[in-house]
Structure formats: structure tokens, C-alpha cells
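G., before I forget:
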Amino acid sequence: MSATSKTPTLTVQDIRARKGGDPIVSLTAYTTPMAQLMDDHCDFVLVGDSVGMVLHGLPSTLGVTMDMMILHGKAVARGLERALMVVDMPFGSYETCPADAFANAARLMAETGAGAVKLEGGVEMADTIAFLVKRGIPVMAHIGLTPQSVNVFGGYKVQGRGNAGDALMADAHAVAEAGAFAVVLEKIPASLADKITAAIDIPTIGIGASAGCDGQVLVVDDMLGLFAAFKPKFVKRYANLAEQAQAAIADYTTDVRARSFPADEHVFADDTGDTK
Ligand code: KIV
């Protein structure tokens, strides 16, 4: 759907109301079939800018564009009937000023049918978050290891250890006070994630954070073992689909070379009933 046929049952208010309640379940999705598989299970589905690395082979999320997010957002929307869809704002689409952020967020929502956008940053993005929320755009914040700042961090390192914990706590308060309806906490110490979760009144969504967060999100290809080149410590593999896919491709190759595929059951008879 663009902003058309189906209305997801879950809203940002439903997610917001889960603060301190049953854990909020989320995964990323980038395609219609994957969205369909998770719609009954996830409370919100994130069209993450991780799509750049996972599906497009980019070295980081920095090369992801608005057009890519819109294309994948539309595809995911076609697969959802129940879960809330949140779409990532790509690098460069919201940092310059609140007005630019509004124009791009409005485009993402109008063209994909998303119920909310997500953007990275804490204190420095609070004015932008407030600007968007006051103008009708629900915002999920993302603090801690914010992958779009990988070049500033010097790698995908744990954030918030030692004194840096105070700055992250300030980020959490700033995005909550600015009106974000939830905040992703990525790759921070578990004890800090627990303190932030206790200190702010919006749900925290952990990824490499703590089981004590109000919810969890993972990149679906990571947890399915499909994006096998890369396995961060915080990912639990629930399947090994890359291995299964490789074995299936090898079996197919063997069959084709042996002329044992296609077999009789895969081909069509002519008008005499013969397949040969
Ligand atoms: O882009 C992404 O996949 C994310 C994570 C929080 C999963 O932002």
C-alpha cells in the first residue's frame, strides 16, 4: 500500500502505553514477504536503514537514500495488517534543520503509509523531534551507538561506558521531553539501559542493551542467520538460513548438471500426453 488500503491495528499510542508493561516485540523488515511473516508476532516493524548493508551490500548505512527508504517502506506496508510500521530517516535527511526534517519525514509517511519515523540522536536532535511531533509526525528516537555516526565513533563501539553514561542519560531525557514516543537504545551497558528505562516515561527498545528494556528489536536477517557475514555479540541466531540456502543451491547445481532436474513432475506433457 502507499497511504491506502490497510490500516495497521497498532498505533504509536499502543506502543507508548506499553511502558513498564508486556515487552514490545520488534524486528526490521525490508520486503513484503518478510513483513507478512512477522505481522502476527511483532508490535512494530522497523524499516531500518540497515537495509543498505543487509540488502544492498553497502559498507555502512551512510549511503542509504530517501528513495531507498520509500521503496522498501512501500514494500513492507503491503505485508502488514496489524503491526505498526516505523521507517528510518536516512543519513542527511533530517540533521540540517527541523524544516528539512519535516519535509522529508512528511514525504516518508505520505508515500509509505508509515505510522512513525525514527531518527538518530539525543540532545542535539531534541528541537527537531519537538518540531516534528508538534506538526503531526510521531518520532521514535535512537541513542547510544547510532550507526549513522560510525565515523565519529571510530567504529561500532559500545557507547555510554564510565562518564559517558551521564551524557546518554541526558540524551534519553531530552528525546523523551521533546515528545518522542519511544527510544531505541543501541549497544550500551545493560546497567545503563536499566537506569534509563527506569528514569524516563517512554518505552525503551533495546538492541545490544538489556532484557530490562521495555522492548527489543533486531535486524531480521541477523537473527535468521541470513546476513551471515556479520554477527554482533548482541545478536542471537534463531536460525541458520544462509547455510540452508547455500546447501539448497548446491543441491540444485548438482541436479542441473546431472540432468535430474527438471524431473517428470516439473515438466508439461504435449497434446499426446508425452513429456519426451
Ligand atoms: O536500521 C536499523 O536496522 C536500526 C536498528 C535499531 C535495528 O536502526
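DSSP finds eleven helices and eight strands in the chain. The domain at 3-240 is CATH 3.20.20.60 (TIM Barrel).

More on Monday.
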